[in-house]
Amino acid sequence: MNPSSFRLGVAPPSAPLLGDRAFLSLWLAHGTAQVAYNAVLFTLLVVILKVTGSSTQTSLLLLLFVLPTVLVGPLAGVLLDRWEKAQVLWAVNAIRALACGALIVVHGYLWTVYLLALPLAVGTLLFNAAVMALIGTLVPKERLVSANSLYNFTLMGAQFVGLVILAPLVLRLGGDKGDEAMFMMASAMFALVALAALPLRERGGGEKETSWVGLRRELSQALQLLVQDRATILALVQLTIGNTLVLLFVTLMPRYTKDILNVSPANAAFIFAPTGIGALIGLRLLPWAARNFGKEKLVPMGLLGIAFSLLMLALVQPIAYFMERAPRPLNPQDLLGLSLLQLLTMVFAGPLGLCYAFLNAPAQTVLHERAPQNMRGRIFTAQGIISQSVSLLPVILIGAITDVLDAFTGLPGIVLTLLIIALGLGLAALINFWLLQRWGLAEAKA
Question: Which CATH number fits domain 17-201+213-438: 1.20.1250.20, 2.40.240.20, 1.20.810.10, 3.40.50.2300?
């Protein structure tokens, strides 16, 4: 047993991760804040789609959630290493609580919604980076895979609760005032997280840099560390792909339900609920899979699985067409009150989430293993900035591309868009496999 674990307040390797009270508090704060954030984002997407009827406008909203992190993120990352990260948690959640409070009044005006995306986006960037940095101080190195699995498990679970349960339920029960009720509830949740974070203290953080000179040099150090190591470079690319996929999925999900399934975009989260369930199952299996296959190999395996799932989602209409003409049990129409199209979509959405679980957590573990403790704020903020910057172009273009394909090809634009994304992910998976072998990064089975 390592005495230093107790000196720093870190649970020993044999103890449950949630047995440490500080880690438990961090986990609860992270989950609650993520539920609130996803519920707010879904509500805004539904409101804007109803008002404008345009995928381009929903892409613009996501762009405005991404762009501020690119503009102010570099300075925020350096400041994060100068501040107590536990204090950052309560400060940014207090700010997000105020922003949601303002949305209660002004959400009917598009430009004010876009303006309020700034504090929500920057607050989310700092919050996520602070949580990731704190995980590295609370968890021993040999348990980082399990800790990152739990982090992503919580992230996916929070997305499921926020997107599938909380936001649709509040919007439905609240009627015309459902959006205001959701913003009010999210504001209260962020305020609760801010209060819960007040007693937290960073452990083993060492001395904080207090000088305000050399900010550019400090950010440069973090970027150099990120790009000088091949394993870190590959992890950055993988996390960027994962971040882009999430943004594209959130953008296209309401459009898919409207154009392919002929149901209201407000039901999109319910239809794609198996994505969250699959992700939770995948994250539960992740430690076992990492031991048996090596965590580095899980990422390209996940990419191939996501590509196949998107291919099936793109082809759901012709698959349903042939199944409708087949004898039972190949034709399970109106099962559980769902149409065949809806049922097939839910079946293909499950593996999509499971495979995504194999993409993010292993790459995050690589960064945790290689990031010095006094630079983790900069490292994870820089990673977030790079991911958000690269995802800008796809997010900007995806709505417009879908609209153009819909208008000029005679086919549902969403189908062709999904086929293009699936092809790109398949190629990315093959390149990942090749680089693992060429760079000697393929981890042997435990």
Answer: 1.20.1250.20
